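User: What would this chain look like folded?
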Amino acid sequence: MSAITTQVAKLIAAPVAILALALPFPASPALAATVGIDRSKDQKVASFGTAHIVHIAKAAEACPDDMVEVEGDYCPIVEQICSQFIKGHEKRDRCAEYRPGVRCYGKPERRHFGVDRYEFPNQRGIKPVVGVTWEESRDFCAATGKRLCKETEWTLACEGQDRLPYPYGFKRDAQACNIDRQYIAPNNDAYGDLKLRAAEIARTDQRDKSGEREGCRSQYGVHDMTGNVDEWVVNEKGTVKEAPYVSGLKGGYWGPVRNRCRPMTTDHNAWHSGYQIGFRCCGDPGLGPAQRPLMHAKGAPIKTSR
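Assistant: Here's the prediction, encoded as structure tokens.
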């Protein structure tokens, strides 16, 4: 058993104070102020830290049980025709139902990757983490031997090979996924104050627990891709300094927004965070420990003894 695996076993029962030691990079004050409300009272922040570390032990597997292997053709441009918009929301591009059948324009691009089954911390029955920046999300994924999903990967995992507008089909369904909840206006001043942030997130919170809605699952078997929380992805055509940014958001959150597989928001920089923003990780399947070393957030391999 490697030293890092032994450390994982010891950390599973670690107290809340061990969070900083459990992570291979320091959590920001903003993140520390946020994650405490994302767990039941008996789990608190410790569960966030240990759930993260548990993934490190699994990172060497080709495709762990908590990930879904996706292989298929991504279409760069699709024709999805809305036959009925939600009344009064035409300009916001909120569609109630699409015509059956989708056309693909351009040459399909083959993709093969693994994607977390649920939103981070990728555990069924636990609410996903929110209030994280794109940079923090990238670093958490890197520390587990994974990475943030590319926008094209995320879209394929959501649309499936039928290139559906919603992961469950052509008709918008607020029962299938956590969408179309009544909008609660956020207090940006309260969210910006680290002392008030946790309370503000709790006030606006309408998340479901991961996997709570069995119908919110794509053809590949990936859960909660539309609605629940917005998810950071890598916009492969974006830049760091100006919009469209490399830090993209996919899927929408629980509120009355587009909540589809294809759209992406690209006007938030990499250090932006929000009360409704989370993420999930992706990885390259078929790579054992010799090919895929565990990485620190800054990109240096984590040394392990065997």
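The domain at 3-66+113-283 is CATH 3.90.1580 (paralog of FGE (formylglycine-generating enzyme)). If you want, I can go into more detail on any region.
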